[in-house]
Amino acid sequence: MPSVSEASPLPAHARSDAPAIVSIKGLTKTYAGGFQALKGVDLDIRRGEIFALLGPNGAGKTTLISIVCGIVNPSGGQVLADGHDIVRDYRAARSAIGLVPQELHTDAFETVWDTVKFSRGLYGRAPNAAYLEKVLRDLSLWEKRGEKIMALSGGMKRRVLIAKALSHEPTILFLDEPTAGVDVELRREMWAMVSQLRDSGVTIILTTHYIDEAEEMADRVGVINHGEIVLVEEKRALMRKLGKKQLTLQLQTALSALPEALASDALSLSQDGHELVYTFDAQSEETGIAALLRRLGEHGIDFKDLHTSQSSLEEIFVNLVKSPRQSGPEVRA
Ligand SMILES: Nc1ncnc2c1ncn2[C@@H]1O[C@H](COP(=O)(O)OP(=O)(O)OP(=O)(O)O)[C@@H](O)[C@H]1O
Q1: Which of 41, 53, 54, 63 for mutating ligand 1's site (highest number of atoms within 8 Å of CB)?
Q2: Residue 239 burial (10 A CB sphere; 0-12, 13-18, 19+)
Q3: Ligand 1 in contact with 223 (CB < 6 A)?
Q4: pTM value?
Q5: ipTM value greater than 0.90
Q6: Which of 144, 159, 53 is closest to 104 using CA atoms?
Q7: Ligand 1 contact via 172 beta carbon (within 6 Å)
Q8: pLDDT tens for each residue of the chain, 333 residues long
Q9: Which among 27, 28, 35 is the best mutation to test ligand 1's pocket, defined by most ligand atoms within 8 Å of the CB?
């Protein structure tokens, strides 16, 4: 699993008190036939952040994105994109949004330049060669501008998708599974590119199946399951949880209660009194384990065995999505 990048702190404008750039309230979607794909989703995306939406197959990620992007009609609720209602003020909302789909289906015979120029035209934007040149240069596509798309490598084609999505100068960019099926090197390139885009002021919302991708890139992580948002949290807070380890001591003799002198938030006694569980920060230099063992000795508490365990984001995720109703504690930022 890649290390978590500490290099790019959340930009000031993406703080929790920043106004939402995408505001989703009570969003529902029932498909023809009666299947309820979204069951009252509330979600605010902060201006300038990278938000990763995680969820198992069929959770509702594509439905949610498609509604915000105006591809699928909502059944109920409200979505504002950069202040514009996506139903009543469709055009303005849509022009604030760029969507990078998973696959490039068309334009194989067109040149990079023509296809990007055409995409801009679709939004009724006046031509702006200087802006498109900047987009292509930023994505290292400028040298390829005269080439036909069919002649490009898979990585370059993905860049063209991003260039098309940026062609009309959107402030919000959706990326649907940006690295599905790409090799490790290209994944890293995509991650770097997305971070650069965020740094240039674009708000990024991406869906992914890859938990390490969310760990690496996202400022915040949301988990959707069975059409409901079950967790929204700062990635760093999740990482802090990840850094927590538990030391479990199996006691020689069961305790009826923890001695008062040992009481602390970090130490708990199992219900049957047979185990002591100590939670500590694995990344900290001073775990407190030596002191704990010393103090247990002072109180005559002996143990016969001990083991440590660590929770990972993957575990948190699997626990959240493993059964329809068992979604664990709801954590919302
Ligand atoms: N047009 C449709 N008509 C009926 N049901 C649909 C339609 N589109 C999607 N669904 C159902 O809605 C649910 C959510 O689908 P959605 O594509 O939003 O999930 P997802 O989280 O994007 O999944 P994946 O990760 O597999 O892409 C699924 O059960 C799917 O079968």
Answers
A1: 63
A2: middle
A3: no
A4: 0.75
A5: yes
A6: 159
A7: no
A8: 333 333 345 554 455 666 799 999 999 999 999 999 999 999 999 999 999 998 888 899 999 999 999 999 999 999 999 999 999 999 999 999 999 987 766 677 899 999 999 999 988 889 999 999 999 998 889 999 999 999 998 888 888 999 999 999 999 999 988 887 777 877 888 888 889 889 989 999 999 877 778 888 899 999 899 999 988 989 888 766 666 788 999 999 999 999 998 988 889 999 999 999 998 877 677 889 989 999 999 999 999 999 887 666 666 677 666 654 433 333 333
A9: 35
Q: Which amino acid is at 155?
A: G
Query: Residue 238 class from Cβ within 10 Å (0-12 exposed, 13-18 middle, 19+ buried)?
Result: buried
Is residue 292 in contact with ligand 1, taking CB distance under 6 Å?
no
Domains of the chain: 12-240 (3.40.50.300), 244-312 (3.30.70)
59 lines ligand 1 (CB under 6 A): yes
- Angle, helices 129-138 vs 154-166, to 10°: value is 140
